Amino acid sequence: MAVAGAMASSAALPLSHRHLSVEIRAFPPKVSGFRPRRRFPRLHSGRRSGARATAAALDSEPETRVLHNDSSDLDLFACPICYGPLIRKGPAGLNLAAIYRSGFKCQQCNKSYSSKDVYLDLTVTSGTTEYNEFKPARTELFRSPLVSFLYERGWRQNFNRSGFPGRDEEFQMAQDYFKPVAGGLLVDVSCGSGLFSRKFATSGTYSSVVALDFSENMLRQCYEFFKQDDILSTANLALVRADISRLPFASGSVDAIHAGAALHCWPSPSNAVAEISRVLRSGGVFVATTFLSSPLNTPFPLESSRPLRQLFGQVTNTYAFFTEKEIEDLCKSCGLTNYTSKVQRAFIMFSAQKP
Questions:
Q1: Is residue 194, in this structure, part of any structural domain at all?
Q2: Where is this region: Disordered (predicted)?
């Protein structure tokens, strides 16, 4: 009953704009000559083995081996410290079972990375035993087990009160923007509980999908949802913990990046978008949604968020909301072009491309 009460109170969002105003701009043009990198075979709908098969694969996997530099796996992840290539020791493949059994080591700085719990930890502080650091309240909030549990159980669904169309329509809108890079690698940054990661991975549109978040508990919740879908057990899908301002990918290696309802939570949106621009390859597409700024615009209204505010403190005033002009200016300043957007009340979905 207490969880249900918290769910109801935390889920409500304000109607920050009472009139409906939709602005639609043209999709970005398809990039001539664009050829996404197909590092992994596409997922076929017939590949259904279930969570039990995944567990069996973990138990029966043969002794690990070292993959050489020409392996398709090695040009995917990079060291978040020096951005050098990682040597992978373990079974091949970009799937939950293979990555769980693998270890990674940077060729340049000798830093080692391994799967912790159910995700691969590629943060700078991975492996530290004494050092701890905390992000701003708007980031730390989503590391809470309670918020991670509630996110798809009432929290996210009520974003429509601020103009969000809903996950099915938002997914299709994003898919339309990503058409020029179909068949490539997609990274769902700040993936949360994997709401859109699951849709991207089962769509058959992308060669592989990386679900990436800074929150350990969001990634654990993400994994719990993955286990409920047989297709995702063997999909080309990875769970990675990483800092949005220090993405663990080589420059120019990613075809598509999605960030759903996340930009306002990032500690430094400018550093994050700069990193996104760095890892996108030429012609790559960035698509994101967020809340536009307004006096009443906050995902946590005063009365309905009272239980959460008692638990987490005054986080409601720490979010970074921007005008559309500011978002467009940020994308341009980070080297992205072909900015387009769709606006509905406080909701905005925008897209930009790497030239």
A1: yes
A2: 41-64
pLDDT at 141: 67
Q: Residue 139's pLDDT is what?
A: 61
Question: pLDDT tens, 164-176?
Answer: 999 999 999 999 9
| Structure-model confidence comparison of residues 303 and 235, the more confident one | 235
Residue 117 pLDDT level (bands cut at 50, 70, 90): confident
Give the residue among 128, 133, 107 at the shortest CA–CA distance from 116.
Answer: 128
352 neighbors 339 (Cβ within 8 angstroms)? yes
Q: Is residue 112 part of a domain?
A: no
Q: Is residue 125 part of a domain?
A: no
**What dihedral angle (degrees, nearest 10) is formed by the CA atoms of 232, 234, 240, 246?**
-100
Q: What is the C-alpha radius of gyration for the chain, rounded to an integer number of angstroms?
A: 20
DSSP states of 201-262: HHSS-SSEEEEEES-HHHHHHHHHHHTT-HHHHSSSEEEEE-BTTB-SS-TT-EEEEEESS-
pLDDT value of position 30: 43
Residue 238 belongs to domain with CATH number:
3.40.50.150
Least confident of 92-96, 292-296, 328-332: 292-296
Count of domains for the chain: 1
Q: Is 334 helix (H, G, I), strand (E, B) or coil?
A: coil
Express each pLDDT in 183-199 by its tens digit: 999 999 999 999 999 99
DSSP 134-199: ---HHHHGGGSHHHHHHIIIIIGGGGGGGT---HHHHHHHHHHHTGGGTTSEEEEET-TTTHHHHH
Domain encompassing residue 322: 2-16+25-33+132-353
Mean pLDDT computed over every residue of the chain? 78
Whether residue 120 is contained in a domain is answered as no
Residue 333, phi then psi, degrees to nearest 5: -65, -20
- The H or E element spanning position 269 is helix 269-279
Amino acid at 180: P
